[in-house]
What does this fold into?
Amino acid sequence: MNYWLVKSEPDAFSWAQQVANKVEPWTGVRNYLARNHLRAMAVGDRAFFYHSNVGKQIVGIVEVARAAYADPTAEDGDWSCVDMRALKPLKNPVTLAAIKADPALADLALIRQSRLSVCPVSAAHWAHICALGGVAP
It folds into this structure.
């Protein structure tokens, strides 16, 4: 299993909407590296659900329910999406400020490539963030 972090602006698509919809296509990614990360995802991979812009915090965990396929929202270009299933919220949301202040997370892609909407997370970072969030890895 691989681990990821996916970002969404909560005023566009929030954790509450993900939970209500249960399974939702992760569409609209228009960055080639982020698209390639989507294509690398496999069914069963886990991802942190991160509220960007408003909140700036990891709020939940989702699971890849369907591997990459053509993004139906793309008007042109070679874009992909995956379907994500809501698994559980973090008991304690993990803020960007807390992540930046934690030396154990200094090389997390969220910090190194802050504008990337889909990025990989190492198993060690996954376990550490889960512990901060009050959930089992």
Summary: The chain has one domain: 3-133. The beta strands are 3-8, 23-26, 46-51, 57-70, 80-95, 118-121.
